[in-house]
């Protein structure tokens, strides 16, 4: 399994989890908000080289679900849709402006531009988000080797 | 869940023949039927290694080994006969890729599972023939590869060039290849050589989300990325001269074109939407499965019916998609050789679906039953005289198209009686991954792969060259082992071997 790790935009692969199918995204952050934003960027990092993306416009997305896993799924599905259908936006930066962990609602501002084949190198295509082995790990009091929040998601490519 | 050692697990696996193993009930809980899988001596260690590794791991990681997945499918409500693993099996989302299973339509408990079809609904392979020979194409090999690459939109973020608006899409979803024919993109006889004649009649676009349609619209007539490709191939070897001639393949060196693609973002979204819907239906109808990824619904429930109608629309999308690329391929060849596709005899030999669920009649223990047959990474392989195969192939059996991996061979097989009786008329679909994408990236350099192609004199055009190592032949099982296993086991018969001279990829 290929793992894209997105903490502070560091991209590397993890040798521990190997599987023949698909790609696992791993992100982390100081809170859920940051880890969610980062896992979104990890997905886009697989589609193109994010260094080539400029911030030219802003798009808002919303996601709502019944639990936290469901919210993560819906959030990524919204982001995938933002890229895959009319206006074809590739974001460079995500800022979650509203994260309600009681009603499981997210509002997120996506800053980027329209995907342009003459400007953005083609990575690969993400077919779908999956619930497979989805993990949202929260450590309120982590030791120095731990993150406060870790997220693992497998995407189908 | 019972934790067993590898040796304990092996007690449930029994050799049936030189090319098949039985998975006994009890290997996983609630198995209603047994499992079976087909391997030869090269593929066998891969299967067992996967099981051994899973016994060692501490439960981290998303996927179960193929054998466990076959057994979990055997535990689904309404399954009949057995859960079948084909030689190219590798583990996937719920169902393994290379797994087929059939469910009794007359049992009210029977289920349909989007995981048993896959995200890429009606992903399949189409083969076109030409009357060109290798010597005609070799001098313009590079130009032709470039021309195909220029004609067919490939890779992430590419858009279709066939003019389409929302209303056209609705019609295409309902009509499948009849739409392509009406719009002038295909020939009438192309339809004859497609499963279902390129149109599933139960398609209902009103059961498809707006989201799926919005993802689908810009992508109609695009190849995609990942393992999808268009290849110019030449006939390398003919094993069954008579059957090959029925397909219009007369001699080695003849040039063909293979297109491997599916229903693009449209199908992916239909599958995603159905999985979310079915999670709720499973709670309501108290459907229990061994693996949470095996989301399913009763065939007769609203969710089950809606999925089948939306899946059929996605299947139609895929046929229109492959038909649009057929049109573009014919244009590219006609321009290059300054003639018409007609004069180049560019007929569709056949078009197979290897991610699909279909309603078919099969004889089980001497009794005819109406079944919902799921084939995920598995190709239908009906024998001679079967009513569902076209008149041209009534005597040979259905052509089965098996795509290899970048730079390796592909095969045409034919369906057999034994497939009908052993595997519900199903055989393999391709090579099947052996290495993870991560391992491929770590161990293989993309420059080496491009160099390898050059050495083999294969022209290559790739949208994302840095990802070619993920699709390198080393990352896959050997397709020759896969088709040989099917041939030896009798579930399909070798007919033609094709080798690529140009590859176009996402």
Task: Give an overview of the whole structure.
The complex is a heterodimer of chains A (157) and B (506). The radius of gyration of chain A is 15 Å and the shape is globular. Residues 5-17 of chain A have low confidence and may be disordered. Chain A is α+β, with helices and mostly antiparallel strands and 157 residues long. Chain A has helices at residues 32-47, 68-84; strands at residues 2-6, 23-29, 57-64, 89-100, 105-114, 128-129, 135-138, 149-156. In chain A, strands 1, 2, 6, 7 and 8 form a 5-stranded mixed beta sheet that branches. In chain A, strands 3-5-4 form a 3-stranded antiparallel beta sheet, with helices on one face. Chain A starts with a strand and ends with a strand. In chain A, α1 (32-47) packs parallel to α2. Chain A has a single domain (5-156), classed as 3-Layer(bab) Sandwich (Archease, Possible Chaperone, Chain: A, domain 1). By secondary structure, chain B is of the alpha+beta class. Chain B folds into 2 domains: 6-104, no CATH class; 123-505, tRNA-splicing ligase RtcB (Alpha-Beta Complex). Helices cover 33% and strands 24% of the residues of chain B. Chain B is built from 16 helices and 19 strands. Chain B has helices at 6-10, 44-56, 66-73, 134-137, 141-151, 166-175, 177-182, 188-192, 210-216, 241-246, 264-284, 302-337, 417-422, 437-443, 446-455, 479-489; strands at residues 13-17, 20-23, 34-38, 79-90, 97-104, 111-112, 124-133, 229-238, 254-261, 297-298, 348-353, 355-364, 367-376, 379-380, 399-402, 410-414, 426-427, 459-462, 493-505. In chain B, the strands form 4 sheets. In chain B, strands 7, 8, 9, 11, 15, 16, 18 and 19 form an 8-stranded mixed beta sheet that branches. In chain B, a hairpin with a 2-residue loop joins β12 (355-364) and β13. The longest helix of chain B has 36 residues, at 302-337. The radius of gyration of chain B is 22 Å and the shape is globular. At the A-B interface, α2 and β6 of A face α9, α11 and α14 of B. Chain B: It comes from Clunio marinus. Chain B: Mn(2+) 1 binds at residues 120, 123, 228. Chain B: Belongs to the RtcB family.
């Amino acid at each position: 399994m290929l793992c894209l790790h997105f903490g502070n935009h560091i991209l590397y692969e993890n040798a521990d989890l190997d599987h023949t199918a698909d790609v696992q995204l791993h992100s982390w952050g100081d809170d859920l908000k940051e880890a969610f934003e980062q896992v979104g960027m990890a997905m886009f990092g697989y589609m193109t080289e994010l260094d080539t993306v400029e911030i030219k416009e802003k798009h808002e997305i919303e996601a709502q679900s019944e639990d936290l896993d469901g919210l993560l799924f819906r959030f990524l599905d919204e982001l995938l849709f933002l890229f895959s259908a009319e206006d074809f936006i590739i974001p460079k930066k995500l800022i979650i402006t509203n994260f309600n962990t009681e009603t499981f609602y997210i509002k997120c501002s996506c800053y980027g531009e329209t995907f342009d084949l003459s400007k953005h190198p083609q990575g690969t295509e993400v077919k779908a988000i999956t619930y497979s082995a989805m993990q949202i790990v929260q450590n309120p009091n982590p030791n120095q080797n731990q993150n406060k929040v870790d997220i693992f998601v497998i995407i189908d490519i | 869940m019972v934790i067993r050692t590898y040796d304990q697990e092996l007690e449930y696996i029994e050799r049936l023949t030189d090319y098949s193993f039985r998975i006994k009930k009890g290997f996983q809980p609630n198995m209603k039927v047994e499992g079976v899988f087909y391997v030869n001596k090269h593929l066998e260690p891969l299967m067992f290694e996967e099981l051994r590794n899973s016994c060692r791991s501490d439960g981290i990681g998303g996927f179960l080994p193929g054998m466990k997945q076959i057994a979990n499918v055997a535990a689904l409500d309404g399954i009949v006969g057995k859960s079948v693993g084909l030689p190219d099996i590798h583990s996937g989302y719920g169902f393994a890729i290379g797994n087929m299973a059939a469910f009794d339509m007359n049992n009210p408990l029977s289920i349909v599972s989007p995981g048993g079809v896959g995200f890429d609904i009606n992903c399949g392979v189409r083969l076109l023939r030409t009357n060109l020979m290798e010597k005609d194409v070799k001098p313009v090999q590079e130009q032709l590869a470039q021309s195909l690459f220029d004609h067919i939109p490939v890779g992430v973020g590419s858009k279709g060039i066939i003019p389409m608006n929302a209303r056209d899409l609705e019609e295409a979803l309902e009509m499948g290849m009849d739409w392509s024919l009406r719009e002038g993109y295909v020939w009438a006889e192309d339809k004859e050589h497609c499963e279902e004649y390129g149109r599933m009649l139960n398609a209902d676009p009103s059961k498809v989300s707006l989201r799926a349609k919005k993802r689908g619209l810009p992508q109609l007539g695009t190849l995609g990325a990942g393992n999808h490709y268009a290849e110019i191939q030449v006939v390398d070897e003919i094993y069954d001269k008579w059957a090959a001639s029925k397909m219009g393949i007369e001699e080695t060196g003849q040039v063909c074109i293979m297109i491997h693609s599916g229903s693009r973002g449209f199908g992916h979204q239909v599958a995603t939407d159905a999985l979310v819907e079915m999670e709720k239906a499973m709670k309501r109808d108290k459907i229990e499965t061994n693996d949470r990824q095996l989301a399913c619904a009763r065939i007769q429930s609203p969710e089950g019916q809606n999925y089948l109608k939306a899946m059929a629309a996605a299947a139609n999308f895929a046929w229109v998609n492959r038909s649009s690329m057929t049109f573009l391929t014919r244009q590219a060849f006609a321009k290059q050789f300054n003639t018409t596709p007609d004069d180049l005899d560019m007929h569709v030999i056949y078009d197979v679906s290897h991610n699909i669920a279909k309603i078919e009649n099969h004889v089980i223990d001497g009794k005819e039953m109406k079944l919902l047959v799921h084939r995920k990474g598995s190709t239908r392989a009906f024998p001679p005289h079967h009513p569902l195969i076209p008149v041209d192939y009534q005597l040979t059996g259905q052509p089965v198209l098996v795509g290899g991996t970048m730079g390796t061979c592909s095969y045409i097989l034919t369906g057999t009686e034994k497939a009908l009786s052993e595997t519900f008329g199903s055989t393999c679909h391709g090579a099947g991954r052996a290495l993870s994408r991560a391992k491929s990236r770590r161990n293989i350099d993309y420059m080496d792969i491009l160099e390898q192609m050059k050495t083999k004199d294969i022209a290559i055009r790739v949208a994302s060259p840095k990802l070619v190592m993920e699709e390198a032949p080393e990352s896959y099982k050997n397709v020759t082992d896969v088709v040989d296993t099917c041939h030896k086991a009798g579930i399909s018969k070798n007919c033609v071997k094709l080798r690529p001279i140009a590859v176009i990829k996402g």
